[in-house]
Design a protein that fits this description.
Layout lengths: L3 E2 L10 H7 L15 H21 L6 E4 L2 H15 L6 E5 L4 H11 L4 E5 L9 H7 L4 E5 L13 H11 L2 E5 L11 H4 L3 E5 L10 E5 L14 H4 L7 H16 L1 H22 L3 E3 L10 E6 L4 H10 L2 E2 L15 H5 L4 H4 L2 E5 L6 H20 L5 E3 L4 E2 L10 E3 L1
Parallel strand pairs: 1-11, 3-4, 3-5, 5-6, 6-7
Antiparallel strand pairs: 2-8, 7-8, 9-10, 10-12, 13-14, 13-15
Helix pairs in contact: 1-9, 2-9, 3-4, 10-14, 11-14
Length: 407
């Protein structure tokens, strides 16, 4: 049985070209880029090249790129680094209810230092209202952090409008673009953002390496003290293999973006339409149009999402119930709950995220398998009934029928 991977939002495979570019830095090219001898100078040149690749991919200057150990560290550095740099000056932060936990937990931790936090609501499609951002700004606001595209439901936020509001108010603006970079055009100058986070393993690079774009002039207090690496903003000997890998991966991703994204979008729509037509009582989560090209998040009423995932896995299909970072939690997705989706509906949600290696045959396989799995699980469900009038509800006789028959 051929396995099908539909969890690219959690991580992507490392491309062969990226792997081959990394190998020398795990074997022969082992110089420390801070050393002044030939080994070190060679490593420094390669470090600078990777920084240029990342910068070019998002329209930044090389000196505005800070390499990190991933997207979570980049988020932490942007939020805590800004807050600590302004400690004693301003003490208010604005974010949204659907952010990645790297953002939400960072702002929560700052409360212990006396910072106040406003967490903005979203609508039923997961969208932040820019007017809510505007109303939340106070003279004490030091930072606004709103993600570019949601990792669970794929909704793309109005970042340009929010950044304009922040700029007019003189407030720094950070966006977590981990899911967007490499999958859709990202230009920090056009967006008007002050800081932007990205992660290599979301666009076919290695795990454990990411970057933070910090506009020239933005003050950041380092989270890691030590040496003078990364312009004194992130101490520690650089992960050269990972950094070379992310440079190669982002360059390839951007050069192929139009073609790959068009393919992903076509397959995404095919999957959404096929599941909607073949399975009753399903709900698409997130904005139908303003969403990532590879994201399909759907709720299947009257079944449990984890059971769906286990059955899909037995068929060789890998998907997820939301963020990979919270896969061990029994609580429903905080994103879906923030969107106003009922607890029981949120628990029946599955996220399928496509990638550059996804083919039509993979989507056809899901469309063949999923209806059978859902039907089987609903047949075992104590809350799934079919009334005489043919309307399915959570409880019997909800529509006044005399007989309610379990399917």
């Amino acid at each position: 049985m051929n396995r099908i991977y539909l969890d690219n939002a959690a991580t992507t495979p490392v491309r062969r070209e990226v792997f081959e570019a990394m190998v020398p830095y795990l074997t022969d090219k082992y110089g420390n880029p801070s050393s002044i001898h030939s080994y070190g100078r060679e490593a420094r040149a390669d470090l600078n090249r990777a920084r240029e690749q990342v910068a070019a991919a998002i329209g930044a200057a090389p000196e505005e790129i800070i390499f990190t150990a991933g997207g979570s560290e980049a988020d932490n550095l942007a939020i805590k680094g800004t807050a600590l740099a302004m400690y004693g000056e301003k003490s208010h932060i604005i974010t949204s209810a659907v952010e990645h936990h790297a953002v939400l937990h960072s702002v929560e931790s700052l409360k212990r230092l006396g910072f106040s936090v406003t967490i903005l609501p979203v609508d039923s499609e997961g969208m932040v209202d820019p007017e809510d951002v505007k109303r939340a700004i106070t003279p004490e606001t030091c930072l606004i952090s709103i993600m570019y595209a949601n990792n669970e439901v794929g909704t793309i936020q109005p970042i340009e409008e929010i950044s304009r509001i922040a700029r007019e108010a003189g407030v720094l603006f950070h966006t977590d673009a981990v899911q967007a970079v490499g999958h859709m055009p990202v230009d920090v100058k056009s967006l008007g953002v002050d800081m932007l986070s990205l992660s290599g393993h979301k666009f076919y690079g290695p795990k454990g390496v990411g970057a933070l774009y910090a506009r020239r002039g933005v003050r950041l207090a380092p989270l890691i003290d030590g040496g003078a690496q990364e312009r004194k903003r992130r101490a520690g000997t650089e992960n050269m293999a990972g950094i070379v890998g992310i440079g190669m991966a982002i360059e390839l991703a951007v050069s192929e973006m139009d073609e790959v994204s068009a393919k992903e979008e076509r397959l995404r729509d095919k999957l959404i339409e096929g599941l909607t037509q073949r399975i009753p009582d399903v709900r698409l989560n997130g904005h139908r149009r303003l969403r990532l090209p590879n994201n399909v998040n759907m709720s299947f009423l009257y079944v449990e999402g984890e059971s769906l995932l286990l059955n899909l896995d037995m068929e060789g299909i890998a998907a997820s119930s939301g963020s990979a970072c919270t896969s061990g939690s029994l609580a429903p997705s905080h994103v879906l709950m923030a969107m106003g989706i009922p607890h029981e509906v949120a628990h029946g949600s599955v996220r399928m995220t496509l990638g550059r290696y996804t083919e039509d045959a993979d989507v056809e396989r899901v469309l063949d398998v999923m209806p059978r799995i859902v039907e089987k699980l609903r047949a075992m469900s104590p809350i799934y009934v079919k009334t005489e009038c043919g309307i399915k509800e959570f409880c019997a006789n909800a529509h006044g029928c005399d007989v309610a028959e379990k399917r």
